[in-house]
TrEMBL record:
This is Glycosyl transferase family 11. Transmembrane segments: none annotated. The keyword Protein biosynthesis does not apply. It comes from the Bacteria. Keywords: Glycosyltransferase, Transferase. It comes from Candidatus Taylorbacteria bacterium RIFCSPHIGHO2_02_FULL_46_13. One of its GO terms (cellular component) is membrane. CDD domains: Fut1_Fut2_like (cd11301). The keyword Transport does not apply.
Amino acid sequence: MIIMKLEGGLGNQLFQYALGRALSSALSTELTLDTSYYKTSPNRAYELDNFNIAARVADDDEIQRFLSPVSKIMDRFRNSYARLIIREQEEFVFDERIRALKDGHYVVGYWQNERYFKSIERTLKKELNLTQPLSKLAGTWSEKIKTVKSCSLHVRRGDYVTNKKIQRTHGNLPTAYYQKATELISKKRPGVEFFVFSDDIAWVKENLRLNVPLNFISDTEIKNTEALVLMSRCNDTIIANSTFSWWAAWLNENPLKTVIAPRQWFADASKDTSDLLPEAWVKI
C-alpha cells in the first residue's frame, strides 16, 4: 500500500494523486489517500472523489502505522532511502528516491513535475473524468465550446490577493501577460473566442480589458471540477501561475493545442521552475 498525503486545492491534489497512481501502478499495489488535512482547512475541500480515480481514502489505523509518535521516531533513525515516510526534498526538482521506492510508504509533498507520472499519461487522462454528468449550466457552456474555435483563459486571484504572504510568494500576473497571450492565440487561430475562468470573475469583468471576444464562464453554479473539465475541452489554453489551470492544459486532448504559460511562475524570479512546464508549452 502507498498512502499519499493530500493537501491544498484541486491542482495540488491532482499532482499528488498522479504520483501516487504512478507508484501504485509500478508496484502493483493499492493507493490510498490521507485526506485529514481537509478536516482542519475550512477554505479547502477534498475534490478528487468527483473523478473516476483508482484510490480510496485511507482509514485512521492505516495512517497511524506511519504517523504515530513511536513510528515517526523509529523512522528518523533510518537513512533517507530506507525511511517509510518520504518527504519531498525540493519543489519542482525530480526526486531520484522515487525510482527506488518500494511498497509500504507514506508520501508527503507537492510533486509538481510531469516526470513523476508521464509514463501513465493515458491512464490518468482516462481516470480524470467526472463521475457525474455536467450540471445544466456547465453543459450549456460545453456545447458552445464545441461549436467554436475556443481558448480557455484562467485568471487566478483569491488568496493570491487576499493573503499577503501568499501574494509575496506567487504574485499576480499583469494584464500585459494576457494581452500578449491572446494576441498569439488570435494570430494562430483567427476567429477564436476566449472562455474566461476565474475565482474572482467580477474583478475580471471589470479589469481585464482585451480586444478579443470574451465569454465569462465562472459561476457559483459551476463546481471547480466542472470548470477544470470545461477548460480542458477548449482547443487552446492560456494558464495562470496556478496548478489548477496547469492541469486543465495537461488534460486537454487536442493534439494541435497551444498552451501559453507564464515563464516566471513566482514573484521571486530566482526560483527554478523549469521542470514544472512541459517543453511543448509556450512560455511568455
